[in-house]
From TrEMBL, chain A:
Gene3D superfamilies in the cross-refs: FAD/NAD(P)-binding domain (3.50.50.60)
Residue ranges constituting the FAD/NAD(P)-binding domain according to the UniProt record: 4-306
Protein name in UniProt: Pyridine nucleotide-disulfide oxidoreductase
Entries under InterPro entries matching the protein: FAD/NAD-bd_sf (IPR036188), FAD/NAD-binding_dom (IPR023753), SQRD (IPR052541)
Domain of life: Archaea
Name of one Pfam family that matches: Pyr_redox_2
Gene Ontology molecular-function annotations: oxidoreductase activity
Extent of the signal sequence: none
Protein species of origin: Haloarcula taiwanensis
TrEMBL record, chain B:
UniProt xrefs under InterPro entries: TusA-like (IPR001455), TusA-like_sf (IPR036868)
Name this protein carries in UniProt: SirA family protein
Native species: Haloarcula taiwanensis
Gene3D superfamilies: TusA-like domain
Residue ranges occupied by any UPF0033 domain in the UniProt entry: 11-79
Similarity comment: Belongs to the sulfur carrier protein TusA family.
Length: 381, 80
């Protein structure tokens, strides 16, 4: 009997998992005892952090995109299709384009997060963002055309991908304007939905004085309610209104529709045991990355570490051994603090992040990691 | 003697989420419901009572009561 491992989603989590499993289960794959199938709805694998740099003209979208087939081990079957539902009794996946359902013995959901700017009236029409290729390019063009004015960076929705990114953009745009001698022609305002500048208290304590010393306006407890594209204003549920010339928003995020239709969790996020990453209430179903409700940030590094844990658990299970690998919440994150400086944090369920003094070396480490990411995707780094 | 317990129209179960997850879940629900709706927020995050009260004061909504249920808080908020 061949054991079918199905992975839904070809982002960082799904790809690292597929490649790590292919290495671990080399003998079983060769013997036909196991088959690994990666389902993805597009033919490309995307490294999303590149988009932040696209907004400043430093990278091109193509730098963050490669055919999935080039990134995924040849021992893994790739099926380009959209998984819409699961029959848990028959252990089958329902696909959009295939007539026959796909069997699975172990299922790993790695469906990530998606943007939903439509949830705030006016935001889709008026708000720029760097959470997608087209958005980042449009933002770059807009930034290059501006001579001055008010830039508002508004974190509209949480949770969102890469919780550090809004701060990174704000620090970077400040520095980018200074480098061009244009900072005095601009006002910059940063808004956040709760009473501090970041969800994590330690990051907030670190970032708050740095925003102030750069003369960046701060509006906390600002939950965007509506954007008026004509008047160029954004208003909050708390009654604050801001005029803007350029609105850069972190749009509301949701998980995958598939997660909802498969009954795995509300909002497209899968309820999981945060240590084993097993879906709550379902046998032989795991979730990793942005899709998994673990409480850690929706970040590629978390997806990477979670994929390693699930790979070990699946391999142990296949070999009839107790699965002992557990995820301790490990997340690492570079935080750009300008165009030439960055800091770095490493944290987990028990230890909070402790940002260090930004350095140029850390910025270059971040850029070096961006280049070596493709080794991570291949499960090598 | 019995204490009349606040009745909620809807419940947001944010147990297991770390700050500010429960508050964000509450805000998301407030967006979706009508005025005068009472929401019960269940949270085991230590700072939720403070954060919810601060946000309610700022946003013009009302915290009706905060109950310590042992392993979690039950916070009733009325949308105004």
């Amino acid at each position: 009997m061949t054991e079918h491992i199905a992975i839904v989603g070809g982002g960082t989590g799904g790809t690292v998992l597929a490649n790590t499993l292919a290495e671990k289960l080399d003998a079983e794959l060769a013997a036909g005892e196991v088959e690994i199938t990666l389902f993805n709805d597009s033919e490309d694998h995307v490294y999303k952090p590149v988009w932040l740099y696209v907004a400043f003209g430093q990278r091109e979208p193509a730098d963050g995109r490669r055919p999935l087939r080039e990134v995924v081990d040849d021992r893994v079957t790739i099926r380009q299709d959209y998984v819409v539902d699961v029959d848990y009794e028959r252990k089958e996946l329902e696909l959009v384009d295939a007539i026959d359902p796909a069997p699975y013995d172990k299922l790993v959901v790695a469906t990530g997060a998606q943007l939903e700017p439509e949830r705030v009236p006016g935001l889709a029409e008026a708000g720029h963002h760097f959470y997608g290729e087209e958005g980042a390019q449009a933002l770059r063009d807009e930034l290059l055309e501006m001579d001055g004015g008010h830039i508002v960076l508004s974190v509209v929705g949480t949770p969102h991908m890469c919780p550090a990114a809004p701060l990174e953009f704000t620090f970077m745009v400040d520095d980018w304007l200074r480098e061009r001698g244009r900072r005095e022609a601009f006002n910059i305002t940063y808004t956040y939905p709760i009473m501090r500048v970041h969800g994590n208290e330690h990051i907030a304590e670190w970032a708050d004085p740095r925003l102030r010393e750069r003369d960046i306006g701060i509006e906390t407890m600002f939950n965007a309610e509506a954007v008026d594209p004509e008047a160029q204003t954004i208003t909050s549920m708390e009654g604050t209104e801001l005029d803007y010339d350029l609105l850069v928003a972190i749009p509301p995020h949701t998980g995958s529709d598939f997660v909802e239709s498969a009954g795995l969790g509300e909002g497209g996020w899968v309820d999981v045991d945060k240590h084993t990453l097993e879906a709550t209430g379902f046998d032989d179903v795991y979730a990793i990355g942005d899709a998994a409700q673990t409480g850690v940030p929706k970040a590629g590094s978390a997806a990477h570490y979670q994929a390693n844990v699930v790979a070990q658990r699946l391999a142990s299970d296949l070999r009839g051994q107790p699965a002992t690998a557990v995820y301790g919440g490990k997340t690492i994150c570079f935080i750009e603090t300008g165009m030439d400086d960055a800091t770095f944090v490493e944290f987990d369920y028990e230890r909070p992040p402790e940002p260090s003094e930004p350095t140029r070396a850390m910025h270059w480490s971040k850029l070096a990691y961006n280049e070596s990411y493709w080794l991570t995707a291949r499960g090598l780094l | 003697m019995t204490t009349k317990q606040t009745e909620a129209d809807t419940t947001v179960d944010a147990r297991g989420a770390t700050c500010p997850g429960p508050l964000m879940d509450l805000i998301s629900e407030i967006r979706a419901v009508d005025t005068d709706t009472v929401i019960a927020l269940l949270s085991d995050a230590e700072k939720s009572p403070t954060e919810v009260q601060e946000w309610a004061d700022e946003s013009g909504n009302e915290v009706l009561d905060i109950a310590d249920e042992g392993d979690h808080y039950r916070i009733h908020v009325k949308k105004l």
